[in-house]
Automatic annotation (TrEMBL), chain A:
The keyword Hydrolase does not apply. Belongs to the binding-protein-dependent transport system permease family. The keyword Transmembrane applies. The chain crosses the membrane at residues 12-36, 65-89, 101-123, 160-183, 208-225, 259-280. Keywords: Membrane, Transmembrane, Transmembrane helix, Transport. It comes from Paramesorhizobium deserti. GO terms for biological process: transmembrane transport. It holds the Pfam family BPD_transp_1. It comes from the Bacteria. PANTHER family: GLUCOSE IMPORT SYSTEM PERMEASE PROTEIN GLCT, TREHALOSE TRANSPORT SYSTEM PERMEASE PROTEIN SUGA. It is found in: Cell membrane. This is ABC transporter permease.
Length: 288, 305
């Protein structure tokens, strides 16, 4: 759609601008402020320059939290995306099954994140949870509280449970937009199931898939509440992802400088990813 | 889709046109085999069914627990309550420290939804209809706020709202949640508004409508479903968020989610009440989800599907 040039449109954007400036710009400036200063209490601050940034970028703690976050995100994507496509391909396209599938699949997306954590914490407990109890009956020594591997598996399965439906719904939205004529043409060509998927369904899905991958990557990269409720970042530090570590430093230890420097590094990573997301979205809009 | 693919598709479309000159019976048979073989195999329903069972099992376990007594939860292991009890729900509906949590959550979530949608409506209109200085940068900046990790904002939010004396008020949480909900509402509404042809605006102006009157009387009914979807997503994201809500409240505006975490860390774990509280937080989403089922993908993709 061709748009008219009109700078008065700024007045319509103004309320949003003020609102988001209040809840984003001012807090971010506070963070920037802390990241370059040191304090010995009593509200006395000293210029510290890039000291905190150097400390953070060199610290093993930050590196390992970052690596854990990236590893977690990649595992999540490797499971959720293929699984989501598989389920979306096999969902009914018409009839009574459609609303049932959509509503039931969307259900986990609407549960408060800490309740998701609580559900899985209870579900995985060996004494009272269905999953933990079943596994121990099968002779598996499952214990997510003490075994780091089990904690990781629990958190990953929880995230798959929580968010795969997002991939499913997005792929499904892409799939239903394919006209029947395409399938009929493929049938006449004698195309195999794989060829239909590769040359008709995948090209139609690739943009929604890209959106799904980016959203899942960013949201899993900043995951906090669910693993915090289930494992509290433990055992040890094994499930301490970037957000959990940041809140520990900022609120738990009240180390303002390092926490602020870490926030900014974290925010810059997210900013770069947002830019990729934005470019993808707007390119799509142009082609539309 | 690339040019080569388009060519291929045009070729296939040609073959399809040939096929449509077939007798109706053959066409119907073709459509049937196509649906059977090309599109989906015979056991297609197995995968979604298994997936839905996987989704519902943990939820079922929570519901199951919420109807048991604590003694039964801890002593016996059963797939359904042996002595069903409503005691856990009774505790929540009679104890103010529990039901106040729900009221607090609903108050700030509704405030946030109203603020977000009202502020986003004109902005989304501006983004969908006009070009103006810095519009693309602004749109991108809004997106970065939706993507920003709440953990980054916890500490500065606490200090900012302390400075304004807003800690432990509903409006503090409502405004703080605007951080990610306003951008979300702007993006979703912009997606819906761009689907309305511009000619409608122009015709209305020619007919002598003033802008506010046009916006309320003509434009808003046209994007009513979009407003509904945006409101639903604001409601939802404010409802599921815990970290910021918990940081900004202590007692008077404490959300239900935070009340639950407190109970988890308290000494005697009241599993039954915890499960009942969890079940009650799922209900609002489960009730409205049916109305937005066709727009859920669009909402999660920020209005871009």
């Amino acid at each position: 759609m061709d748009k008219t040039w009109n700078n008065k449109a700024w007045f319509m954007v103004l309320p949003v601008l003020l609102l988001v400036a209040f809840s984003a710009v001012i807090p971010l400036m506070t963070v920037v402020n802390y990241s370059v200063q040191d304090t010995f209490g009593n509200n006395q601050f000293f210029w510290a320059g890039t000291e905190w940034f150097e400390e953070i970028l060199r610290s093993d703690r930050f590196h390992s939290a970052l690596l854990r976050g990236l590893l977690f995100s990649f595992i999540i994507l490797a499971i959720e995306v293929p699984l989501g496509i598989l389920i979306a391909l096999n969902m009914p396209r018409k009839g009574w099954g459609v609303p049932i599938c959509l509503v039931l699949m969307a259900l986990p997306l609407l549960i408060p994140w800490n309740v998701v954590g609580t559900i899985w914490q209870v579900f995985g407990r060996v004494d009272i949870g269905l999953l933990g109890r079943t596994l121990s009956q099968l002779g598996i020594n499952y214990n997510y509280v003490q075994n780091p591997l089990h904690a990781w598996i629990t958190v990953i399965v929880m995230d798959v449970w929580h968010w795969t439906s997002l991939v499913v719904l997005l792929c499904y939205a892409g799939l239903v937009s394919i006209p029947d004529a395409y399938y009929q043409a493929a049938k006449i060509d004698g195309a195999s199931r794989w060829a239909v998927f590769r040359y008709i369904q995948l090209p139609k899905m690739n943009r929604v898939l890209l959106i799904a991958v980016l959203l899942r990557f960013m949201d899993s990269f900043m995951i906090y509440t669910e693993p915090f409720v289930v494992t509290g970042g433990g055992p040890g530090n094994s499930t301490t992802f970037l957000s959990i570590d940041l809140v520990k430093i900022a609120v738990g230890q009240f180390d303002l400088g390092p926490a602020a420097a870490m926030s900014i590094v974290y925010f810059l990573i997210i900013l770069a990813l947002s830019w990729v997301f934005y470019t993808v979205m707007t390119n799509y809009d142009v082609e539309r | 889709m690339s040019v080569a693919d388009d060519k291929l598709m045009a070729e296939r479309k040609g073959k399809f046109d040939q096929a449509s000159s077939m007798p109706p019976n053959a066409q119907a048979a073709l459509a049937r085999t196509m649906r059977r073989r090309g599109e989906q195999s015979r056991f297609w329903w197995l995968i979604p069914t298994l997936y839905i069972i996987f989704l519902l099992l943990p939820i079922y376990w929570l519901v199951n627990m919420s109807f048991k007594t604590n003694a039964e939860i801890l002593s016996t292991f059963s797939l359904w309550p042996q002595q069903p009890t409503l005691r856990n729900y009774a505790v929540i509906f009679t104890d103010p420290s529990w039901y106040r949590g729900y009221i607090n959550s609903i108050i700030y979530v509704v405030m946030n939804t109203v603020i977000s949608v009202l502020a986003a409506l004109p902005a989304a209109y501006a983004f969908s209809r006009y070009r103006f200085l810095g519009d693309k940068h602004l749109f991108f900046w809004l997106l970065t706020n939706r993507m920003a990790p709440p953990a980054v904002f916890v500490l500065p939010f606490f200090q900012l709202y302390s400075a304004f004396g807003l800690i432990d008020t509903h409006i503090a949480v409502a405004i703080a949640h605007c951080l990610f909900n306003v951008p979300l509402a702007v993006w979703i509404l912009e997606g819906f508004m761009s689907g309305v042809p511009k000619e409608i605006d122009e015709t209305a102006y020619i007919d002598g409508y003033s802008f506010p009157r046009f916006f309320v009387k003509i434009f808003m009914p046209l994007i009513a479903s979009g407003i509904g979807v945006a409101a639903f997503f604001c409601f939802m994201f404010s409802w599921v968020e815990l970290l910021i809500a918990r940081t900004l409240t202590t007692t008077a505006a404490k959300p239900i989610a935070a009340t639950m975490t407190r109970t988890v860390s308290a000494s005697g774990l009241d599993w039954g009440v915890l499960a009942a509280a969890g079940v009650l937080t799922i209900i609002p989403g489960a009730l409205v989800i049916y109305f937005v089922r066709n727009y859920i993908a669009k909402g999660f993709a920020l209005g871009r599907v």
